[in-house]
Amino acid sequence: MTGLLRVPRDHGSAGAGIADTLRDEILRGIHPPGARIRQEDLATRHTTSRIPVREALRILEAEGLVTRVANAGAWVSRLTLDECQELYLVRERVEPVLLAISAPLLSTADLDDLDDLAERMEDADAEDFLRHDRAFHFLTYAPARTVMLGETVVGLWNRTHHYRRAFVTAAHARHDGAAHHDHRLLVAALRRGDADEAAHVLERHIRRTRIELERHPEIFANEPPVR
After folding, report:
1. Which end of the chain is more exposed for a tag (fewer CB within 10 A), N or C?
2. Domain spans in the chain, listed from the N-terminal domain onward
3. What 8-state DSSP symbol labels residue 223?
4. Could you give the C-alpha distances from 89 to 29, 104, 120, 182, 207, in angstroms and in order?
5. CA atoms of 101 and 217, how far apart (whole Å)
6. How far is CA 137 from CA 129, 162, 192, 205, 224, in A?
7. What is the three-class DSSP state of 28?
8. What number does CATH give the domain 3-76?
9. What is the pLDDT along the chain (227 residues), one digit of tens a residue?
10. CB 169 within 8 A of CB 209
11. Cα angle at 163 between 158 and 166, to 5 degrees?
């Protein structure tokens, strides 16, 4: 990049740091969908100018976590039920493709780590489950080297994370162990070298969450409006 589009290195580094902090807070539910993000508050909090703050918001917008409106401001991205269904339908199609690319590249150590994460999830509370679940699935994709598919999947996960939290909380309340069963089946298929079966397990795993979310439209109705 040249000219006015160039971000000074110090601002770029500061912006990435602010983005890391805000990303973590959004994914942990500290800032819910529809919450206003005020540049001046972020600048004060991080003792910086608005330039790196704008860079941070640009990064998070590209990841699907933040929505910016020209001359209006920025908000944590939110979804309607229809939008969430659409993103989950996309996930059902693209994540098995990414897994099929990655599966042959997973090492024995990777598979052992997946077993460990699957075991941790079985005894975890809802929030720890979400953290381990993200680590689990992203590890299954990690060896793949793609032009855009990997980034696309991260964006889909980010945009649907809040709603997955609601699903996981409800599943824990009724002691639903279907996700744990899927994780074990997935690792078993990967250990056998059966990438096709692993992809089928993953597709069903994602579909189950989509169907469950469709049964709970109140998750989407009770969010603060974006202003």
Report:
1. N
2. 3-76, 81-220
3. S
4. 24, 25, 28, 18, 8
5. 34
6. 12, 17, 18, 11, 30
7. coil
8. 1.10.10.10
9. 333 333 334 445 889 999 999 999 998 889 988 899 999 999 999 999 989 999 999 999 988 899 999 888 999 999 999 999 999 999 999 999 999 999 999 999 999 999 999 999 998 988 899 999 999 999 999 999 999 999 999 989 988 988 888 878 777 766 678 889 999 999 999 999 999 999 999 999 999 989 988 888 888 875 544 44
10. no
11. 135
Where helices occur in 67-194 by DSSP H, the ranges are: 81-102, 108-122, 126-141, 149-173, 178-192
Could you please report the per-residue DSSP string of 43-94?
HHHTTS-HHHHHHHHHHHHHTTSEEEETTTEEEE----HHHHHHHHHHHHHH
What the block records as the tokens of 178 is: 């279907």
Domain 81-220 is found in CATH 1.20.120.530: yes
pTM: 0.82
**The tokens of 184 are what?**
């074990």
Helix (H) or strand (E) holding 37: strand 36-37
Helix, coil or strand: residue 38: coil
